[in-house]
Write a structure and sequence with these properties.
Layout: E1 2-4, E2 7-9, H1 14-21, H2 28-43, H3 47-60, H4 65-78, H5 82-95, H6 100-105
Antiparallel strand pairs: 1-2
Helix pairs in contact: 2-3, 2-4, 3-4, 4-5
């Protein structure tokens, strides 16, 4: 682990490096990469890790609708916790009331 510009970087934990290195809101490409990586992990049998990863991203970036939507979908497909998925969609609609995907799922 070494430090650069006040951030700690680890070459052994790339997902932590991405989160630690991101100071401002991520761009669409970064969000899509996170979503694809977590979807792939969940489909490979690592649903708990994928859900935890996305939950941590939502904590850091609570207004990114795509992350909340994806989190709700992960919960619906990989757990029995549908109420939390619904909560995420309702939170998404609080700050983006015209989100078609969120409206459709509710």
């Amino acid at each position: 682990v070494h430090s650069q510009n006040g951030y700690n970087y680890s070459h052994h934990e790339p997902e932590n490096e991405v989160i630690a290195a991101t100071e401002t809101e991520p761009d669409d490409a970064q969000i899509q990469e996170w979503i694809e990586n977590s979807r792939d992990a969940a489909n490979a049998g690592n649903a708990v890790e994928a859900i935890t990863f996305v939950a941590n991203l939502i904590e850091k970036y609570p207004t990114i609708a795509e992350l909340r939507y994806h989190y709700a979908m992960l919960l619906a497909h990989h757990t029995d916790n549908l109420s939390e998925g619904i909560n995420q969609l309702q939170a998404l609609l609080e700050f983006k009331p015209d989100d078609e995907a969120g409206l459709f799922l509710l």
